[in-house]
Design goal:
InterPro entries: GHMP_kinase_C_dom (IPR013750), GHMP_kinase_C_sf (IPR036554), GHMP_kinase_N_dom (IPR006204), IspE (IPR004424), Ribosomal_Su5_D2-typ_SF (IPR020568), Ribsml_uS5_D2-typ_fold_subgr (IPR014721). Residues 69-147 form the GHMP kinase N-terminal domain. Its EC number is 2.7.1.148. Keywords: ATP-binding, Isoprene biosynthesis, Kinase, Nucleotide-binding, Transferase. The structure is a single chain. By secondary structure, the chain is of the alpha+beta class. It folds into 2 domains: 5-161, Ribosomal Protein S5, domain 2, CATH 3.30.230; 166-292, GHMP kinase, C-terminal domain (Alpha-Beta Plaits, 2-Layer Sandwich), CATH 3.30.70.890. The chain has helices at 70-82, 104-119, 126-136, 140-145, 179-190, 202-210, 213-219, 227-233, 237-246, 268-281, and strands at 5-22, 28-47, 52-56, 88-93, 148-152, 157-160, 166-172, 251-254, 261-265, 286-292, 298-299. Strands 1, 2, 3, 4, 5, 6 and 11 form a 7-stranded mixed β-sheet that branches. Strands 8-9-7-10 form a 4-stranded antiparallel β-sheet, with helices on both faces. The longest helix is centred in the middle third of the chain and has 16 residues, at 104-119. Bound molecules: cytidine-5'-monophosphate (C5P). Cytidine-5'-monophosphate (C5P) binds next to strand 2 and helix 5.
């Protein structure tokens, strides 16, 4: 019997993020088209005396190792439901940018949840795991499910959608952006205006299903309702978007609440070229070459 369980979890990009007005609870209703991309964190759960978290990877110094880490909270919530102690060490091998708008923290929450469920042999029904995910955060259910999905409500109600294969380059920015701060900036920028109810774009869903990169590129501009807010807080992102366009990307957008930017490219060869040009431009800290869709949280050992 294995003494530990390792789960691999994908990052996401939102090919559409339609944002409604702030609700009474402070959240925003969304029409959120999630796409999981082949950039993964791995969470390993090992039996221990108490609940501890460690992290390795390029940005690991920015990851909180206390109970504010979504992986730790996932273990606590699952253990509480099962009436057991969260006696587990969680090790995160981090590849997804931290506070980058790619659901890295959410991925670790979903990964820890599945890893602990397997380690503790709880066999929790999928529906219950998804409920715990929604309690952890708006993007966590999608991290568990992966693939491509429309998220409504605050993003936690998921409907799978069809998606062909696409290639992406991500430009990682220096420093993160706080998601609540970006939503607050959205509220400030839209104050006094009539914010329409968010709706998924039929043209975007059709382009996604077609697997036709040119069709998707045609509908991506303007699809992220948080982009103006992210650019307002981090004006330098406009330089990264311009550098990606100059490098030959088919389309570029801010990933979720940013500050990572996402570039749709035609194929793997073009991805390598665009990534090299972005790195040479000096407008980002690093790049990641990926494709979509990617599977959700999956046990790898
Ligand atoms: O759900 P999660 O904890 O990831 O959300 C982080 C913050 O992002 C919330 O506290 C809220 O400020 C903002 N948010 C929002 N509307 C959403 C999702 C998140 O305003 N649908």
């Amino acid at each position: 019997m294995s003494a530990s369980v390792t789960v691999r979890v994908p990052a996401k990009v939102n090919v559409q993020l339609a944002v409604g007005a702030a609700r009474p609870d402070g959240f925003h209703d969304l029409a959120n088209v999630f796409l999981a991309v082949s950039l993964f964190d791995e969470v390993t759960a090992t039996p221990a005396d108490g609940l501890t978290v460690s992290c390795e990877g390029p940005d690991s110094d920015q990851v909180p190792l206390d109970r504010s880490n979504l992986a730790a909270r996932a273990a606590e919530l699952l253990a509480a439901r099962a009436g057991i102690e969260p006696a587990v060490h969680l090790h995160i091998a981090k590849n997804i940018p931290v506070a980058g708008g790619m659901a890295g923290g959410s991925a670790d929450g979903a990964g820890a949840l599945l890893a602990c469920d397997l380690l503790w042999k709880l066999d929790t029904p999928r529906e219950e795991l998804l409920e715990i995910c929604a309690e952890l955060g708006s993007d966590v259910p999608f991290s568990l499910v992966g693939g491509a999905a429309l998220g409504t409500g605050r993003g936690e109600f998921l409907t799978p959608v069809d998606a062909g294969r696409f290639h992406w380059v991500f430009a990682v920015a220096e420093g993160g952006l706080s998601t609540p701060a970006v939503f607050r900036e959205f509220d400030r920028l839209t104050a006094g205006t009539d914010v329409p109810a968010p709706e998924a774009s039929p043209a975007l869903l059709a382009a996604l299903a077609s697997g036709d990169a040119d069709a998707l590129a045609a509908v991506l501009p303007g699809s992220n309702g948080l982009q103006a807010a992210a650019l307002s807080l981090r004006p330098q992102l406009a330089d990264t978007l311009a550098a990606g366009a100059d490098a030959g990307a088919l389309a570029g957008l801010v990933s979720g609440s940013g500050p990572t930017t996402a570039f749709l490219v035609r194929d793997a060869e073009s991805a390598a070229k665009v990534a090299a040009a972005l790195e040479a431009s000096g407008t980002c800290r690093a790049t990641r070459v990926t494709s979509s869709p990617a599977p959700g949280a999956t046990a790898v050992s």
